[in-house]
Structure formats: structure tokens, C-alpha cells
Amino acid sequence: PLGATAAVLDELVLRAPRRATIVEVSSIKAALEPALERARHAGVLVLCLHPMFGPGKSAWGPLTFALAVRADEAREVELVRALLAHPYARVVAMPFAEHDRRMGWLLGLAHLSGMLFASALARSGLDAAELEETASTTYARQKATALSILGEDPALYLDIQRLNPHREAVYAAVEDALKELAQLVRAGEREAF
Predict the structure, then answer these.
(1) 3-class SS at 94?
(2) What's the distance, Cα to Cα, between the start and end of the chain in Å?
(3) How sure is the predictor about 55, in pLDDT bands with cuts at 50, 70 and 90?
(4) Nearest-10 crossing angle of helices 167-187, 109-122
(5) Would you call 24 helix, strand, or coil by DSSP?
(6) Residue pLDDT, tens place only, 106-126
């Protein structure tokens, strides 16, 4: 679980020889800052990597890794590229503080959208079979995405929402967008779409 990553990192640092390198792959980085600082003081380099794909991803397509850089970008990118010697591996370096902001939009919003879709349907009063018998292509795609999200580890997705310090900005944007779209639809202003 993401909430336990800092304690695991602390334990690894205690066991690591000085000048060791640890690679952590958590989806949210801000909660790790105190443990990362303790690792730095102990002389242990921690590379903050985030694979931007799940276990079902084919190795024959782009494999993007977000690298949350804490110190020397060139050195950290070089170490990660050596570790990920794969023809389709792509490393995108960004400042450490930028990682969670981006993940709020890339992961948080995507997960939230799927959860909102499923939650709204559950409140529809319609039976799933009724929806399925007349399902549109758009509905089927959205349902598949929502099922994929809801079929994953719910504790992980909750932690991705809960631990991201930028979540409130995402939630505020969703709330504002929903209000604005509802107002436009009520007013019949199709041009705004």
C-alpha cells in the first residue's frame, strides 16, 4: 500500500550499504519526502520512478516511466536508463514537486471519472440488464473503463486520491466543469461544447 511505502523505504535504507541506490515506484511521491530526506542523509540514493502503465501492458509498445528528480537530473536519468535497458522504455524526467501535480490530473482525474460514472449509474434506478440491452458504443467504452478501474486494487486507488496533495485542485475543477456544463445544457447553448 502507498501509505506503507515510507516505512518500507526507511527499513531498506537501514539495511542498505552506504552509497547504495534504491528505486521506489510509488504513484504518489509527496508522502515520501521525509523518508527520502533520511535516505539522503544516510548516503543512500533513491530514484523516484513511476511506471505509467499497469501489469497488462504489452512490452511491445511504449513503456513510459515518470522520473521525479530530486537532485541531479542528468545523473538520475542516466542511472534509470541503464536500469531500464529496453528498446521501448521512455523516461520522462520532471522536478520532484511536479510529479504529484501531474498525477492528480493523469491518475486522480481518470480514476475519479470512472468512479463517478459507476456511482451515478448505481443511482439511476435502472437495472444493469436494461442498460445493456440498449447500450451505445460510447456507453460500452465508458463502462469498460470504469470496470477496469473498479476491478483494480481499491486500496491503491483510494491512496492515490487520498495521498495526493493536489487532489483538491482536481476536485474543484471537476465540480466547476460539472456546474458549467449543466448550466450550458440547461440553457441549450450547444456552441459552447
Answers:
(1) strand
(2) 40
(3) confident
(4) 50
(5) strand
(6) 999 999 999 999 999 999 999
